[in-house]
């Protein structure tokens, strides 16, 4: 069973519908007690970094999610769910994240902000997440901030938007992407299925 963390993220329902479309059992998690029996965890995200962290804390989900990722259990972060894995975001000055990985989340300083629409992902390292997906495939993005991980070896994908930044990571059983597979059509569905199959 896949658990999808609910802290009020805008893309929660579309992520759940994507797994339902794939015929995969998934349920929405609104409290830590509901994580019992969960085998894989998804942290979706659209919205403000600081407010989302606060919402997770209010629902008592912050520590359980942080401990899940720190224990290297099967995990997928999507968009803000990727950014929150790191130490801090530049949003509103400085906002602390889950801090599982070292690195920060700066704001784009060029182009239209946020980045909205389709962009390519260069596959910088081999990963089962890319099975059946061509290098430089297009995925749907919606974000004004991006990650700068200290450990560049965890990067498996990069995207250019005036600056070349890490748009997909893999560290053990932890995967996360900056784009929205649930809004990326056939290729996005393939990526979600790949993650489930890992």
From TrEMBL:
One of its GO terms (molecular function) is imidazoleglycerol-phosphate synthase activity. Keywords: Amino-acid biosynthesis, Cytoplasm, Glutamine amidotransferase, Histidine biosynthesis, Hydrolase, Lyase, Transferase. Its EC number is 4.3.2.10, 3.5.1.2. Pfam families: GATase. PROSITE patterns: GATASE_TYPE_1. The active site is at 79 (nucleophile), 180, 182. Residues 4-195 form the Glutamine amidotransferase domain. GO terms for biological process: L-histidine biosynthetic process. GO terms for cellular component: cytoplasm. It is found in: Cytoplasm. The keyword rRNA-binding does not apply. It catalyses: 5-[(5-phospho-1-deoxy-D-ribulos-1-ylimino)methylamino]-1-(5-phospho-beta-D-ribosyl)imidazole-4-carboxamide + L-glutamine = D-erythro-1-(imidazol-4-yl)glycerol 3-phosphate + 5-amino-1-(5-phospho-beta-D-ribosyl)imidazole-4-carboxamide + L-glutamate + H(+); L-glutamine + H2O = L-glutamate + NH4(+). Pathway: Amino-acid biosynthesis; L-histidine biosynthesis; L-histidine from 5-phospho-alpha-D-ribose 1-diphosphate: step 5/9. InterPro entries: Class_I_gatase-like, GATASE, Imidazole-glycPsynth_HisH. PANTHER family: IMIDAZOLE GLYCEROL PHOSPHATE SYNTHASE SUBUNIT HISH. IGPS catalyzes the conversion of PRFAR and glutamine to IGP, AICAR and glutamate. The HisH subunit catalyzes the hydrolysis of glutamine to glutamate and ammonia as part of the synthesis of IGP and AICAR. The resulting ammonia molecule is channeled to the active site of HisF. Heterodimer of HisH and HisF. This is Imidazole glycerol phosphate synthase subunit HisH. It comes from Candidatus Moduliflexus flocculans.
């Amino acid at each position: 069973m896949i658990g999808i963390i609910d802290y009020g993220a805008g893309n929660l329902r579309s992520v759940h519908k994507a797994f339902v479309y794939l015929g995969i059992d998934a349920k929405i998690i609104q409290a830590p007690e509901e994580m019992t029996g969960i085998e894989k965890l998804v942290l979706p995200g659209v919205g403000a970094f600081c407010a989302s962290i606060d919402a997770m804390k209010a629902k008592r989900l912050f520590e359980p999610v942080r401990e899940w990722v720190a224990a290297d259990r099967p995990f997928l972060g999507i968009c803000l769910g990727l950014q929150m894995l790191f130490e801090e975001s530049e949003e509103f000055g400085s906002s602390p994240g889950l801090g599982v990985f070292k690195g920060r989340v700066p704001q784009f300083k060029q182009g239209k902000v946020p980045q909205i629409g389709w962009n390519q992902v260069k596959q910088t390292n081999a990963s089962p997440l890319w099975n059946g997906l061509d290098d430089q495939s297009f995925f749907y993005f919606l974000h004004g901030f991006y990650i700068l991980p200290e450990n560049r070896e965890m990067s498996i994908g990069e995207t250019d938007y005036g600056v070349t930044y890490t748009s997909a990571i893999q560290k053990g059983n932890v995967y996360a992407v900056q784009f929205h597979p649930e809004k990326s059509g056939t290729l996005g569905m393939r990526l979600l299925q790949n993650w489930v199959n890992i």
